[in-house]
Amino acid sequence: MSPTQERSATTTGTLSPPSPHVTEQVEVRSRTGPGRQVDVLLNRLTDAGQSYGPVALRLSLALVFVWFGVLKLTGDTPVDALIGATLPFLSTDITLPVLGFVEVVLGLAVAVGKAPRVVLLVLAGHLAGTFLSFVTAPEFMFDRGNPLLLTADGEFVIKNLVLISAALVLIARGARGPRVRSASR
Question: Which domain holds residue 165?
Fold first, then answer.
């Protein structure tokens, strides 16, 4: 396609910003043909992600917490030795069921969605506590004492950074309220 034909095949316009917090206008090139269909599809997926993504994130956090909590309550958790080494001054006969109960309650509270900012803040705090294992049980966390080589337990705890980040995203979204969609899209 020649440059002249290419210019005539696209039009320029402005769209309202996707967020009421953004005040500048965004210039967009509208395509024709297959490129336009891809743009429409991507816009629909983006809209669906904005609508359903936070709910999916909240429910997946809830599922993980309930699941891991139940494993602790039933004595089927693979992290019992790690918990024992992290909290050597407490009996795992007490800590496992208590942690399991707390995790199930937190998971159900996240799923229900009541007082989400408070519940998610407590959940993030609970997850932050898991990093104590790097201090009290480094032999479980690092392979041959090398801080760059994590064991499976170390990876299990480090992934809590993602769960903490998810909780923080949901807290921030709750503080701001749901996004208001612009009618001009």
Answer: 54-176
